[in-house]
Amino acid sequence: MSEMLTKLGIDWRLFIAQLVNFLILFGILRAFAWKPIIMALEDRRAKIKKGLHDAEKAKQQVKDLEKEREAVLSEARAEAMAIIEKADQKASALSQEKIQTTQNEIEKRMEEAKEQIKGERTASYNALKQDLAKLISSATGKIVESMDSKSHDALIESAIKDLSAE
Prior knowledge:
It is built from 3 helices and no strands. The chain has one domain. The protein has helices at 2-7, 12-146, 149-165.
């Protein structure tokens, strides 16, 4: 076998020395470097796993916060709509109240105008009645002057009956 190694250009003593050196170096590296490297890799793996877990947790918190934000926005919209509806109702009630007040004022003024017209009509009627009474009295006075006393008494009785009937 050493002949075969020689033909390949490999010195078997040098090969064994290199193999021994490699095994010593491997033993030293395994004792001093392998465990720290494995531990560093395990620590890194644990940190990555923790980071992924934290990222997933943060993602879930973001989703929860988004749901909460939507709920708050929905509630705020509902409150805003309720406030607007309430304001509309108040405005409508106020408008109805103003309309009712205006209608009452118009009716009051109409009644006052009717009363004033009625009073003026009564005053006009009374003035016309007085003028008519004066005119009738004057005409009657002239007719009575020309009548005899018997006709005069009959006329007075007839006038009294007419006034009693009214």
